[in-house]
Design brief:
It is built from 19 helices and two strands. By secondary structure, the protein is mainly alpha-helical. A two-stranded parallel sheet has the order 1-2. The protein starts with 10 loop residues before the first helix and ends in an 8-residue tail after the last helix.
């Protein structure tokens, strides 16, 4: 799936991998304008609310099915098991303890994960300043007994105390928070198009192996998911295997709000049923959307927030009012 001209387009890296392996690849440009006619149907099929648009996911699996493929191998759980998300692997700072060198490596990993050359992603403070600020915050939490931990229903399991801080955080992400949500989402995206997904990283042997590893096997020398990178490096170019930027599969929502979806959104926030919807604060939603449209410095997080605030209205129209239901 490609998003030409946006910070989230990663087709150049996908092409490097397929060229390296000598295999064919199918690239589809995700055009939100063409998908608008099916947006109500997408929400009706998906049923739930989420922070991202269903458009790229639905179009991708539709393209997969159009190629005659009914089962795919997807990479779900790699990030949750091996520390691919910055909001998880920052917990390794607790494991680094007073070892400033290791702590700074974790912070540098975070800094390098953010894309460069785009105003949509704020720069992270310098490693030493960030590390010092984090330590002060964690010390205050401990003093006030408000330290945030990776709570889980399995925290009383005998093996739980053997996990390091990052391991506990990843355990919760894998079992209770991030991964279950993504598995639900992708099951609906894929099955809406008659495609079933398989997830090799969720083989129980790989999961057990992941939680047996120390945090330094996952966050090492400035790289997240270090052990995974080492494992797959023979099968792809080094510049891809050891590429640090991490965005994930998402919509370039800021570019869409400013560009192809602008007219649709302006029309939406002017509708009477939008203003009368009891599921949203229409003024807040309108303000968030217009802020992204009009601000040259709109951040990706601003676009994500604007879409998230709008989603209950789109969901209401598609699901509650039935505009997304198939015609009889």
């Amino acid at each position: 799936a490609t998003f030409p001209g946006t910070p989230l387009d990663e087709s150049v890296y996908a092409r490097k991998v397929t060229d390296y392996l000598g295999i064919n690849a199918t690239f589809i440009d995700i055009d939100p304008i063409k998908a608008l006619q099916n947006l109500d149907r997408y929400f009706w099929l998906f049923e739930d609310l989420y922070i991202t648009s269903p458009i790229p996911f639905m179009l991708t699996y539709a393209a997969v099915k159009s190629e005659g493929i009914s089962v795919t191998l997807d990479g779900h759980a790699a990030d949750e098991l091996f520390g691919g998300y910055s909001f998880d692997y920052l917990y390794a700072l607790d494991d680094a303890g007073v070892n400033i060198r290791k702590g700074l490596q974790v912070v540098q990993t975070l800094r390098d994960a953010w894309p460069v050359g785009s105003s949509q992603f704020s720069a992270i403070p310098g490693p030493l300043a960030f590390w010092f600020k984090w330590k002060l915050k964690e010390t205050a939490k401990k003093f006030l007994k408000r330290r945030i931990k990776a709570n889980t229903h399995d925290s009383k399991h005998p093996q739980w105390r053997r996990l390091d801080n990052l391991g506990r955080r990843l355990y919760a992400s894998t079992h209770e928070t991030v991964l279950p949500t993504l598995l639900r989402n992708y099951d609906r995206y894929s099955m809406a198009n008659g495609v079933e997904i398989r997830m090799p990283f969720l083989d129980h042997r790989i999961a057990c192996f992941a939680f047996a590893l120390p945090w330094t096997s996952k966050i090492r020398n400035g790289y997240s998911k270090a052990v995974v990178r080492d494992a797959v490096s023979p099968y792809m170019p080094g510049e891809v295997a050891y590429r640090k930027t991490k965005l994930g599969f998402n919509s370039p929502i800021v570019d869409w709000i400013k560009g192809p979806l602008r007219e649709f959104l302006l029309d939406t926030i002017s509708r009477r049923d939008f203003r009368e919807s009891t599921l949203i604060d229409s003024e807040t939603v309108s303000g968030a959307i217009r802020q992204v449209m009009d601000s040259p410095d709109a951040q990706f997080i601003d676009g994500e927030r604007a879409w998230t605030l709008l989603t209950p209205y789109l969901w209401e129209r598609a699901v509650i009012k039935g505009e997304g239901a198939p015609s009889e």
